[in-house]
Specification:
There is one protein chain. Helix content is 44%, strand content 13%. By secondary structure, it is an alpha+beta fold. The strands form two sheets. The protein has a five-stranded mixed β-sheet with strand order 1-2-3-4-7.
């Protein structure tokens, strides 16, 4: 049956997309052939909302069969890139081409001189997507995205926590401000300007926490 395309619409779609990624992870024998749920959450609440000021209603697109999601498309941030998440049981040439067409139409970025750009992510083992991209005239960039994996069934060496350190849940108030300040330093090469801005307005971190509050509340 041909998957039906539609844009993201409501918060219910968000929860259905999360469940879809769980199912696909199992179908793929626990390999990340599509996004992990945690990456999807981070993309929504930080990369898209905080960094690009975009909501899922702006940049997420679904394909369904009999009301069930079989694929979705969105960037990990703003316009100019697209990530495909597909149930492998529906991974056809026709679907790959249709998703690419939607990405080219709705997720491209425009340069100052009117140029257009779009980066598509294609796993090394996905020869079908690579062939579709090649036929459309895409060129492969240098570099790679590494995905590190560890089998949890295997024994792991015991790790001793250094003296003086403890692990506990973060509290509110000053600890929240310190966490935001530390993030500004660590992700911006120690630039004090970013650290102060991160601490002065914690809205961005509240957005990241939103998924946990929704899930636990």
């Amino acid at each position: 049956m041909k998957p039906i395309f539609r844009p993201y619409q409501t918060e219910d779609d968000y929860w259905r997309m999360r469940e879809f990624l769980r199912q696909v992870f199992l179908i793929n024998n626990r390999y990340e052939r599509s996004w992990h749920v945690a990456r999807f959450d981070y993309a929504r609440w930080h990369s898209c909302l905080n960094c690009a000021n975009l909501h899922l209603e702006d940049i997420a697109f679904l394909w369904e069969v009999e009301g069930e999601i079989v694929a979705f498309l969105m960037p990990d941030g703003g316009y100019g890139e697209a990530h495909f998440s597909i149930n492998p049981n529906f991974g056809t040439l026709e679907l790959e081409e249709e998703m690419l067409t939607v990405a080219e139409k709705r997720l491209k970025a425009f340069g100052p001189n009117g140029s257009r750009s779009l980066r598509i992510w294609a796993p090394e083992q996905n020869k079908l997507r690579q062939s579709v991209l090649e036929k459309r005239g895409y060129t492969k960039e240098k570099g790679a995205e590494h995905q590190w994996r560890y089998k949890i069934e295997e024994s792991r060496p015991k790790v001793e926590i250094p003296k003086g350190y403890t692990i506990r849940s973060q509290e509110e108030g000053l600890e929240l401000l310190e966490r935001c300040y530390a993030s500004g330093l660590s992700f911006h090469s120690g630039d004090i300007k970013y650290a102060v801005e991160n601490r002065d307005d914690c809205t961005w971190y509240r957005n990241i926490q939103s998924r946990s509050r929704l899930y636990n509340g």
